[in-house]
Amino acid sequence: MDSLSRVLWWLFASSGGARSRTALVRAIREQPRNAQQLSEAVAMDYTTVRHHLRVLVQNRLLETTGEHYGQVYSLAPALETRWEELERIAARHRSR
Question: Which domains does the chain carry?
Fold first, then answer.
């Protein structure tokens, strides 16, 4: 298991925010969005969304475009190329 696989397992299976992060990256994959748009798309508190986005950016799974307020989030190439692995991890986490 490489380091990116370990990060995916940690963020999308073994931590408390795994389901929230999974919902966010799925919404971003569908269409790049800012934090407010994501909050509405996944019916999640804006502050919670911002927290998860910060974690995902720090782990280089998301990229941003634009300035602080209104930044648009998109999938980083590393996550895009490992999307099927993420879905397998998320599916195993849901089945627990």
Answer: 3-94 (1.10.10.10)
